[in-house]
Amino acid sequence: MTCVVILLVLAATTVVTWMALSMSERDMKSVIGQQQFSLLSLAAANIDEQLAGKRTLLASIADDVPPRQRTPAAIRAAIERHASAAEEFANVAAFDANGRFLASLRPPLQDNPSVKDRPYFEQTLAQKRAIISPPLRGRVSSLPVVVLTHPIIDSGGDVQAVLVGSIDLLNSDFFQHFNTMKPGKTGFMFIMTTEGILVNHPNKGRLLEHINARPGVNLGTQRALDGFEGWLEATNKDGVDGIYSYKRLNTTNWIVGARYPTDEAFAPMIRMRQQAVLAATLFAAVAGLLSWSMIQVLLAPLQKLRSNLHAIRARGGDIGLLRSHAKDEIGELSEALYELTAERQAALERLAESEKRARVIADNIPALVAYIDRELRFRFTNEHYQFLLGIDPRRMVGKRVDEVFGPAMLARWQDCFDIVLAGRRIHVERLGEELERHLHLMVELVPDLAPDGSVPGFYMMCTDITERKTAELAQAASEKRLRLIADHLPVMISAIDREHVLQFGNATYRRWLDTDPDTLPGRPMASVAGEVAYREAKPWLERAFAGQVTDYESTARLHGEPRVLETTFVPDVRKDGSVPFVYALTTDVTRSREVEAELLRQARRDPLTGIPNRRQFEDVLDQAIERVRRQDSQMALAYLDIDNFKHINDSLGHAGGDEVLKEFALRLTGNVRTTDTVARLAGDEFVIVFENIRHPDEIQLLAQKVMDAVAPDFTVLGSPLRVTTSIGIALYAGGTETAGGLIGRADMALYDTKRRGRNGFTIDSGRGLPEAAVTRP
Ligand SMILES: Nc1nc2c(ncn2[C@@H]2O[C@H](COP(=O)(O)OP(=O)(O)OP(=O)(O)O)[C@@H](O)[C@H]2O)c(=O)[nH]1
């Protein structure tokens, strides 16, 4: 912190110093530049002045030549009369209009020199006025020179002769003053023509050379050649910066330039900058230290606060240490921090408590519980890993799934992980083949959906369902066995739901109805059994859904044959009392019903004679009495006993007696109406129930008819035998009399007949006394 403060102060001081220096440097550069340009302008004025002086000198020599005696001697004399000519020029010579030598101040270096083809000469002739030549190399001396000319014109206006003054660029004093005006110690001045040919340069070897003869570019010089006058900063071809000033000469338009190296020009300023930086650094250090000391004093309460916070965080100390009763900003801050920390501590305690509870719950869930992040690393695992798989859950945290269970496991589960990490919940049941124990696992993968829709991880809960799975497999095997049994039972078995839709049917459907049992689930009962059969079954079925076992019998045609079917509806009553299904067991009872009917029939028949026995008789009598009451008709009951049957038995044997009984029964049944019933009650006792008696007198005729039927001899064991019978008849014409009462009256009437000597009949019409009694002789 201290370092930061010092660095900040230093940085601020440096920035301020740098800005101040930059501004003063900019001003200083401007001043130096202007100075340089002023100096250069003075130097240029000096050159202009010298050139003007030299031109004036030539003009004066020309004027001094007498117009009518322009001989070489006169011209030479005129030159020599001007003593300054020798100082101003390296030589002054005169040439005629054809360029031929006329005279000179100093002897020529060659005989009869000619300037006929020299451009400055031709230009002077052509323009008829004085000119200053560009620098050129002397023909004979090979020295660099600048030539000034002046024409001597005759009265006719023609050029009669030309005065030529040469300036030796190497040795003359022409640039002496100019060169002393160079800027600084290492600066210099130079002159070049508008074409860039050097007229003056500290390096004399470069005279007459083009300024850009050396490779590279100096943008300042370039601008000067383009017409710029003034000062600027530029870099020379050697890469050295400098202040450049440029000014044009009035006389020749040549460019006068000065170069002032920046290092030298700004040397004082650089020194000043270094001193300023040093001073600023010192100032910053002192200011920084002072600031630091002050901050230390100011921040002392905060430091205390910080160390208290450290102590609380490191050792869990009392957060009351954060409290401060100071009435300043730091006091308020401490109090706010205390409240914040207290709230945070309470929240952390609640969170810890909640995490503890969650951990206890997770550790005690009989399932593997884990949280896995997007990199498929375990972030949370419960204790069940230790219990079920023998893996320490703490060692799993931070490891990837394949690091714990191997790459084969990851490959098998990767598709599930991809789905859950895409935000979809998955439920799968799988055999955990990658585990040492082959467990059946039920796995629930739940994505951890963040509020922004991203999925940073997912929860995985694996339950060991091996036991359940084994039980399911056993149940499936058991169901298969049951199915096998059900399919081979001669019973049609169905499961019917509350909508009366079939949910199951056994193979008997195929045998009885030619219906594939696999097509039954989902089909309404009516569509399988037919509307009629369904309507018949419906009430029984509804009672079964009410919880009652019902059964009923029905008839149906199976393969064209009439069959009797017995159906039992068994409700599937659940613990809550609901009946989701009713099982229907339909049995073909045709054969047993036939046997039953036969047994019943036989139970009601006398086995010896084949006519109804006492049981049948009693039913018939009850029904007949009921019909009389209902139809307001009449009936009669005849009670018959074979006379002296004991004697027959005794004489002919029991078999003979049986023959008599059978013949007797045959004769009785053959002589009554089909609506009448003949029955043998026991031994030689028979009864006849006569129905639909229209008049009591009819009874007598009926009795007589029976007597007549018995009268002819019987053939017993090949011998004729006379058999007689005694009859007692009771008439019933309605009323409350019971069957027993009627039988009693008939019996009494029989008794009367016997009492009178047998072989006859007695009729009791129900009026108290027998009304008719007949005894055969
Ligand atoms: N053969 C034969 N005899 C039977 C049968 N059932 C009963 N009896 C005999 O029939 C006889 C009936 O005799 P009763 O009716 O008491 O005497 P009864 O000789 O007919 O004398 P009344 O009736 O007074 O004429 C007895 O001897 C029985 O043993 C049977 O099924 N077959």
From TrEMBL:
InterPro entries: Biofilm_reg_signaling, dCache_1, GGDEF_dom, Nucleotide_cyclase, PAS, PAS-like_dom_sf, PAS_4, Rev_trsase/Diguanyl_cyclase. GO terms for molecular function: catalytic activity. Residues 633-766 form the GGDEF domain. Keywords: Cell membrane, Membrane, Transmembrane, Transmembrane helix. The chain crosses the membrane at residues 276-299. Residues 354-424 form the PAS domain. Pfam families: dCache_1, GGDEF, PAS_4. It comes from the Bacteria. It is found in: Cell membrane. Signal peptide: none annotated. GO terms for cellular component: plasma membrane. It is a multi-pass membrane protein. PANTHER family: BIOFILM ARCHITECTURE MAINTENANCE PROTEIN MBAA, DIGUANYLATE CYCLASE DGCP. This is Diguanylate cyclase. It comes from Massilia eburnea. The lineage of its organism: Bacteria, Pseudomonadati, Pseudomonadota, Betaproteobacteria, Burkholderiales.
